[in-house]
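Minutes, project check-in

Agenda point 3 was the complex the collaborators sent over. CS summarized: four entities, 254 residues total, and the question is how they sit relative to each other. Sequences were read into the notes so everyone works from the same version.
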Amino acid sequence: MNKPIKPTESELEILAILWERGASTVREIHEILEQQKEAGYTTTLKLMQIMHEKGLVTRDASAKTHIYEAAVDRELTQRQLLNKMIDTVFKGSASQLVMQALGHHRSSPEELDMIRQYLNEMEKKQK
Amino acid sequence: MNKPIKPTESELEILAILWERGASTVREIHEILEQQKEAGYTTTLKLMQIMHEKGLVTRDASAKTHIYEAAVDRELTQRQLLNKMIDTVFKGSASQLVMQALGHHRSSPEELDMIRQYLNEMEKKQK
DNA sequence: CTCTTTGTACGAATATCTTCGTAAACGAAT
DNA sequence: ATTCGTTTACGAAGATATTCGTACAAAGAG
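CS then shared the predicted structure for the full assembly.
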């Protein structure tokens, strides 16, 4: 069995940026992070170094300014976090989670349509 | 603005049990917790005392054996955890989260139907 | 070359979470 | 009343996460 990826809160914020932007320098990450919350530069640096030790990111250290990249798959990580949440907080009922998510995070009609299509496809495959 | 409820991993496990069972003693909680993971009795006790300090649970200490009850709303907590997750891990797209959740946590046809109904209702209300 | 800026490395302080041992209080049973 | 099992209270150790100061290296400007 694969060991679950378990980034901390702060690490997750950085991963999210890396997934979004692709390979980035510490400064680039830091600049974006700063818009979301207060953070010192060396704090961000240290975090990313630790993430490197843990294998959450890879880095290219060939130039003076290192370049970091996410080393864990986005969807896989999302899935693991979700499953854990479904188990502990939603008594194993994914549909409850889904309705909770839709009910309070106003989604556009287009998004709702996408979900509907997705539901239909799932049902077909199940037969 | 309301301060977000931010239980730790362990606290969440206990809250889930309290939500499910209603008011309970430490021993009752502990017995259930033990089925899920290894834990010493005093560890569970201490956790619940801390949760009481934090205001996550209330307790009736009139008898020798105290009785605890969840002090935070289940749905509100679920919502806050979900919203945070949507923001950081899913770029603010609830539908992406929904599809991830449905795709990998096998749901019964009944559940899928419930969600479909829910979608329809939402669409009506939006007009 | 010297000075300034930008970057990494490292260590340490702080905070938070988790776990558990020990002691004291209480009630029930003998 | 003494003993035994159950429960709470407390404190402290251990683990993990977060933050930042300082030192040093490298590159560019003058």
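Noted in discussion: The two ends of chain A are 29 Å apart (CA to CA).
Follow-up: revisit at the next meeting once the mutant set is ready.
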